[in-house]
Amino acid sequence: ISVTNATTKSMNAENAAKWNLYVKEAIIGRLGEVQWNWESEHNVRAKLMAEKEVLKENFKNVICKEIFGKERAIHQISQGLKFALEGGFLEYLSGKVRIAVQDKGWVTDSTILEAHVDLKYLELSKSGRVNELISKLKYPKKFYEETVLEKISEFVKTNKDIEWKNIVERVLLALDNSCLEASRMDADGYIKMQGMMKNDLPIEVLKNLPDLTTWDDGLNIDLNKTGEGINKNFIEIEKGIKDHLEGMNPPNLQIIDYSKRVYKILSDNFNPGARPRCTFVCPRCKLPCNKSLCHYSEDSRHNCDHQPGGLVGVRWKGSNDLVGFSCAESVARGHSIAFKDGDKPYADFDKIYPEWMLPCEVNKKSRVRKYLFQEHNKAIADYYGCKESDSYNLEPRVISSIDELIDESLNKTKK
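Above: the chain sequence. Below: its structure as tokens.
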């Protein structure tokens, strides 16, 4: 308290009383935290003394400085801008990356997205990770979303450091312009400075800027010009704040945190064409819908190209063999869907599942999915506890190698 009294001698009585009260409350609050931590964690005396030293350092570094005038402005504005930069950068970078990726095929075109997913399936197949492959096929919604997030992450990694440099430079430019203008004023320079800086800051930073207690009438008067020429107070304030901000690193967030934010922004886009693909899956073959996320059109029902049902464990009633046909092929061949209360024709697919369109033969057949079913027929049967698909289910093999399909999928991803 004696140190605080010495510090506040240069203040008027009202401000000195406020700071003394602030110091008292800060000490009481911090000591309360120390006591609680000690009692709750059964700390030994050595740990309590360590807490005491931390308290002492905090007191010396924050309270014992002359926190008024220029120093007060530099300290609190720089801390406020640091907080705002760290809080706003997630939104800032996410917005930049969203613009960069919103027209990419793996966002707007289900065929291209499926090619990226197929590449991953083929890599699992080629490396012998068959059970992992079957699991991904069983839960495609998560796998498709992960694929999009991975593609977004590539852009985040490329742009993170560049955009961090850009946003800091924009903040420093706003600071430079506002301080320069304030330095030319005889009075109310601080009010002018704060107004200009708030107008020029990136919106993502401004939204995260805390209410700074330094931005008050008292400090405005403290910083008024006292001599001829420019008001050097603001030149020194600018330099002090720059010293605090330059060299800052981006917030310590994982790449996936930024990617998920971008995915969320894309999903909320008013333009359906710029949204990621719908993640609802066919109730039979589990292939995701090929329309945009939250699609609302004249026909808002889901649709997809469908894949062999046996890939996800669909089997024939009675024989328990895996089904090698897609939903569209089953409609064309007059197959039925087995339910507990009786069989229903595939031709009534859109009546059984009214949120889905009727599968038809014009739907494109996936050579990759056909290959995966034929190549891993036995492993899939073992996984689901049923029998392999018989020759009736399997089309003649026309694919010479998995590399042929990898090249085919790669070419699709480049469209």
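The two ends are 71 Å apart (CA to CA).
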